Amino acid sequence: MTVTGIISAIVVGLIIGALGRLVVPGKQNIPIWLTIVIGIVAALIGTFIARLLHVADTRGFDWIELIIQIVLAAGGVVLAANLYSRRGVQR
């Protein structure tokens, strides 16, 4: 992986993570770095799922792939927010 690939993954992760966070109602008390990591993982897994479903390479913009990634990111944000809130209560 090149430096450009790493920077691209961070940018895509930031966007997917932010979109996933916007989809989830309410306030999520998780750090921005975790949102980026969730977005990167959701983007990678979403692309893998889209390729399995043969919808990753279409003409124009891959809307189905993007929706899969955002749904995964939203699920990751919900999971992380729940884990962070439980961790904060135990202190």
Describe the structure.
The protein has 91 residues and is mainly alpha-helical. The protein has one domain. It is 77% helix and 0% strand. The chain has three helices and no strands. It has helices at residues 3-23, 32-52, 63-90. Helix 1 packs across helix 2 and helix 2 packs antiparallel against helix 3. The longest helix is centred in the C-terminal third of the chain and has 28 residues, at 63-90. It is globular. The mean pLDDT is 84.
Brief sketch in words of this structure:
This protein has 91 residues and is mainly α. The mean pLDDT is 84.
Give the tags.
single chain; 3 helices; 91 residues; 0% strand; mainly alpha
- Number of spatially distinct domains: 1
Q: Specify the overall morphology.
A: globular
Fraction of residues in β-strands: under 5%
N-to-C SSE string, H for helix and E for strand = HHH
Number of helices: 3
Using DSSP, what is the number of strands?
0
Helix-strand category: mainly alpha
Rg to the nearest angstrom?
Answer: 14 Å
Q: Main β-sheet, in a few words?
A: none
First-residue to last-residue Cα separation: 40 Å
Uncertain ranges: none
Helical percentage: over 70%
The averaged pLDDT comes out at: 84
